[in-house]
Specification:
nine-stranded mixed beta sheet; five-stranded antiparallel beta sheet; 15 helices; alpha/beta; GMP Synthetase, Chain A, domain 3; 25 strands; about 500 residues; binds 5'-O-[(S)-[(2-aminobenzoyl)oxy](hydroxy)phosphoryl]adenosine; Rossmann fold; about 35% helix
């Protein structure tokens, strides 16, 4: 059980607490262009809070849109909003006018702080928003100038522990993005559950990762987890797998977090870098195929720590600490969370049988004005869209997104299992497996494969891939159709868009 005081401001708990503990001079963020100590970051956040309240008329509960790559200003802006008692609505740099418009409207945004380099689309989106938007930019001197007129030592707003402080939007792989609401205490709860029990961070740790701060995977890894213990966060505006490797070497990073596809590429390139500082390697966002786990282990001697998280839960809720990792399994519920696999009747399914994953914990269950709340939240449990199996030992094994299960001639086939088998073939760079409509079998297994540049795609390779899968897993799961592509469709958070592949497969079948 976690206990927090009834009055709680996350900014005070994460920043002021470090200054009070004597770590004011310790580097909090190291970004591409500047390094800020905890004291400096706190000062900048206090000034931003003063600009919001005194210059822009913010009152507690107002929603403030933030738009930027991962920079020191972006982190300071988050804390400025929290100190002012506002609600952060962070948006990814990749969002375009249409999506920004949805966010402005859904979250009833009244204020925005934005990196000047990304202002154009936000300005455009704001022209027909329902509420007038008070927009201030940094990077061109505007916010900097306003900040300079305010003292850097004001106290944070006296918020309640269960005042909303963050609205996170899901990436919306299949439907309109859902807004999920999080309290001040939730920001601490993810630190005191997942981070504390699985990562066990210390002030000497150096965190680095690729996800944008607007994706809660990134907010946890780049801000909440390091700051809860007074560690250092290295922020990258661009974070390709190679950028990550370079940053680990240069900053002697100890914790790195990114998605499975990036880990796969990093494993292939790890040889050229000194990664001896690394201690914790976190993979989330998509299932971690066992071959990627093995490749990283072979390249570095380190285990990848898989973990399933979700925007609605704020962060990871099933994972395993290093010593308890089972390759191919997501892990066990993080202390503080409970997880269950539900059968079709909504009751807990027997161990070993697949069903829908449900989770309950200190976070979750709160959608922003969404009629889907009743489908996704039942009796205090979040019903995920994922099919899992829990084994006799209690470990959870990911099967597929529930709407991604392939039914072929009466067999249930999980695309990710076929993908993992394909990935161990040396010619495969990336792949995605979905069901394609088929008159005889209902669906057939279809693989979209990005071959390595030096391998000629053709009938011989198709047969080699099929034989490879038949030898690796139950033969009925092999891809009867294989199509070679140059790239796979992905969401802004890097997830494979299987729905798009399914549409391609359906269009192909109609031809
Ligand atoms: C899928 C996984 C298998 C799964 C997230 C860490 O991904 C995050 O949040 P989203 O809201 O998506 C949630 C959905 O993504 N997924 C995530 N991790 C795994 N599937 N194995 C995994 N390890 O379908 C889940 O329902 O974008 C991840 C921390 C914070 C996050 N928001």
């Amino acid at each position: 059980e976690l206990h927090y005081p009834a009055r709680l401001n996350a900014a005070a708990a994460l920043l002021d607490a470090q200054v009070a503990a004597g770590r004011g001079g310790h580097p909090a963020v190291v970004s591409d262009f500047e390094t800020l100590t905890y004291a400096e970051l706190r000062g900048r956040a206090a000034q931003i809070a003063a600009v919001l309240v005194r210059d822009l008329g913010l009152v507690p509960g107002n929603r403030v849109l933030l738009r930027s790559a991962n920079t020191a200003w972006m982190v300071a802006a988050h804390f400025g909003v929290w100190m002012a008692g506002g609600i952060v609505v962070a948006t990814m740099p990749l969002l375009r006018v249409k999506e920004l418009r949805q966010v402005l409207r859904k979250a009833r945004v009244s204020h925005a702080l934005c990196d000047a380099r990304l202002a154009g689309e936000l300005r455009f989106a704001a022209t027909d928003a329902p509420d007038p938007l008070r927009l201030v930019l940094w990077g061109d001197g505007e916010l900097e100038g306003l900040c300079a007129r305010h003292a850097a030592d004001s106290a944070p707003c006296d918020t309640a522990a269960d005042d909303v402080c963050l609205i996170g939007f899901t990436s919306g792989t299949t439907s309109e993005p859902k807004g999920t609401m999080h309290f001040h205490r939730d920001l601490l709860a993810v630190c005191d559950t997942y981070a504390r029990h699985v990562l066990r961070p210390e002030p000497s740790d150096v965190f680095v990762g690729s996800p944008p701060l607007a994706f809660t995977f990134g907010l946890g890894g780049s801000v909440l987890f390091p700051f809860r213990v007074g560690a250092t966060s290295v922020l990258l505006e661009r974070a390709s797998p190679e950028d990550l490797l370079r940053a680990i070497e240069r900053h002697r990073a100890t914790v790195c977090f990114t998605a499975p596809t990036a880990w796969r590429e990093m494993a292939a390139k790890a040889g050229g870098f000194d990664l001896s500082s690394l201690r914790n390697c976190v993979s989330a966002g998509e299932a971690l195929p066992a071959p990627v786990f093995e490749a990283w282990r072979a390249a570095t001697g380190l285990k990848l720590l898989d973990g399933i998280g979700a925007t609605e839960m704020l962060h990871i809720f099933i994972a395993a600490p290093e010593e308890a990792v089972l390759p191919g399994s997501t892990g066990i519920p993080v202390p503080g969370f409970r997880a269950r696999v539900l059968g079709p009747d909504g009751k807990e399914a027997p161990r070993g049988t697949p069903g829908r994953l449900a989770v309950q914990g200190p976070t979750g269950c709160r959608y922003l004005a969404d009629p889907r709340q009743a489908d996704y939240v039942q009796g205090g449990w979040n019903i995920t869209g994922d099919t899992y199996v829990q084994d006799a030992e209690g470990y959870f094994w990911y099967q597929a997104r529930s709407d991604d299960m392939i039914v072929s001639a009466g067999y249930n086939i999980a695309g990710p299992e076929v993908e993992a088998a394909l990935m161990t073939h040396p010619a495969v760079l990336e792949c995605g497996v979905v069901g394609a409509p088929d008159a005889e079998r209902g669906q057939i297994v279809k693989a979209y494969v990005v071959p390595r540049a030096d391998v000629p795609p053709g009938a011989a390779l198709v047969r080699s891939l099929q034989d490879h899968v038949k030898a690796a897993i139950a033969p009925y799961k092999y891809p009867r159709a294989v199509e070679f592509v140059e790239a796979l469709p992905r969401t802004q958070t890097g997830k494979l868009r299987r729905a798009a592949l399914r549409e391609m497969a359906a269009a192909g079948a109609r031809r």
